[in-house]
Amino acid sequence: MSVESIVRAVTTYRLTEMKQRGEKIAMLTSYDYSMAKIVDAAGIDVILVGDSAANVMAGYETTVPITLDMMIYHARSVTRGAQRALIVVDLPFGTYQGNSKLALDSAVRIMKETEADAVKLEGGEEILESVQRILSAGIPVMGHLGLTPQSIHKFGTYNVRAKEEAEAEKLVRDAHLLSEAGCFAVVLEKIPAALAARVTKEIPIPTIGIGAGGGTDGQVLVIHDMLGINKGFSPRFLRRYADLHEVMTEAVTHYIDDVKSSEFPNEQEQY
Ligand code: KIV
Q1: For the whole model, what pTM was predicted?
Q2: Arch. (CATH architecture) of 3-240
Q3: What is the per-residue burial (b if ≥16 Cβ within 10 Å, else e) of 24-47?
């Protein structure tokens, strides 16, 4: 088997090169085969199998309840649909914090059972040992700083993080720690644009922003939000590229009407 057949076109190395030449990185979430196929064929650089699946796929209020088995199910579906993009999978809450052996076991399960390319963990210094242990097994790690939704019960709100100097300085330190440990990229979520731009200049690995302004090396959005499937979530940073809620509602009501009025199926649509 050639290396080309097991390594996707977009690699962690390629993302570093993109940062070096100032080429922006486009990342989107996907949680299933059909969506991943569309997103991949459109040319996305990175697909994140985010634990936001807890919200948009499973209907939970927070990302806390999603399990490793659920993430593996979503990740397997995505890797079957995508050939080109780098595929990163979130380690869910409770599978890596405070226990680096558990973290390694969780990451190994993701890699063995899903054929994904990398894992993502939320946090800085507190989870550094877990990050290092996963990296020591040769598994690429993406960091995630700023608003880390798995800590929602600690934060108490989804408001912008790191507005105060102490939290901002900790975030900068954490970004350096993750970069020095060997992470290949870091997500910066919902922090002031100036802080995200500063981190992006200071560390050699790519930063991927969500609600962190235009000064990062790339951007990520949750696909259900940017396609307008999920209409109940409208933060300032979200740009909607379609209104699929409307398109789908119209199609479904049209179908119902056609069935009820015996318009569907017609003679050409039967055997
Ligand atoms: O789970 C997710 O979708 C994420 C992104 C918002 C970065 O972590």
Answers
A1: 0.96
A2: Alpha-Beta Barrel (3.20)
A3: ebbbbbbbbeebbbebbeeebbbb
